[in-house]
Design a protein that fits this description.
Blueprint lengths: L4 H26 L1 H4 L5 H18 L8 H24 L1 H31 L6 H28 L18 H17 L12 H27 L7
Helix pairs in contact: 1-3, 1-6, 3-4, 4-5, 5-6, 6-7, 6-8
């Protein structure tokens, strides 16, 4: 069945979105060391990632019904990121209160974006490099979501962490803000099953989060491979 000009344009925009999403995620990972001295950088990178997901992959996805929900959750997550960061910097008590809606908003946004991405990927007419990059970006999104959970756990229950495994706090930064990059990096170590020593083995909550991050990453790979193999189309010519 031939594609219309509009379908081809949407396909191109969506594939550019896959590439841009992966680029943003890789940039986030590479800039984590710099985020320790530039306390707003990680929040800006998370917001940038949300904007990319909303304006490219979500906008040009063939899935229409849940698109407004992604827009809404993304907007709420972006707004709460700014409020949460400011609260932790100037009034940690308020920051702890905002932490729960903050982490819920981000997790719901990432979960919905990830589900939509998987459904969109398996509907792609061709398996191209951009599609592979889109699948990779989904895997990294699991790690970023895990990092958000670890950061929330640090704010709400610092005793779950092995302090000796975390970097020395900068006296000019709030604890949670200074720890964000290290905890985000720890999430990727857990995601890849390498493991991380930042969580105390006696912390049940920490163990649960570790298991969730690890299993989510493996499930993503297994489900995506199964779905793509089930709908695989060879590119003609």
């Amino acid at each position: 069945m031939p594609f219309t000009h509009e379908q081809i344009e949407r396909l191109r925009h969506r594939h550019r979105g896959y590439i841009l999403t992966l680029t943003t995620e890789v940039l986030l990972i590479l800039l984590l060391p710099l985020c320790q001295s530039q306390v707003w950088l990680l929040s800006l990178l998370l917001i940038s990632l949300a904007v990319v997901l909303i304006t490219t992959v979500t906008r040009y996805s063939p899935l229409v019904s849940t698109r407004p929900l992604v827009y809404g959750l993304g907007g709420v997550a972006i707004a709460l990121e700014g409020v949460w960061h400011l609260a932790l910097s100037f009034d940690p008590a308020v920051g702890r209160i905002v932490t729960v809606p903050h982490v819920i908003a981000w997790l719901l946004f990432f979960l919905l974006a990830l589900m939509r991405k998987v459904k969109t990927l398996v509907r792609e007419p061709f398996v191209t490099l951009a599609v592979v990059m889109g699948a990779t970006s989904g895997y990294l999104l699991v790690g970023i979501a895990g990092g958000v959970m670890l950061i929330a756990l640090w704010v709400l229950h610092p005793g779950a962490f092995a302090i000796s495994s975390l970097p020395v706090l900068n006296q000019h930064n709030a604890d949670a803000v200074a720890m964000e990059p290290a905890l985000m990096a720890a999430s990727f170590a857990i995601l890849t099953t390498v493991g991380s020593g930042v969580l105390r083995s006696a912390s049940v909550t920490g163990q649960v989060i570790t298991v969730v991050i690890t299993i989510a990453g493996q499930l993503y790979i297994a489900i995506l491979i199964a779905l793509i193999l089930g709908r695989f189309h060879r590119r003609p010519g």
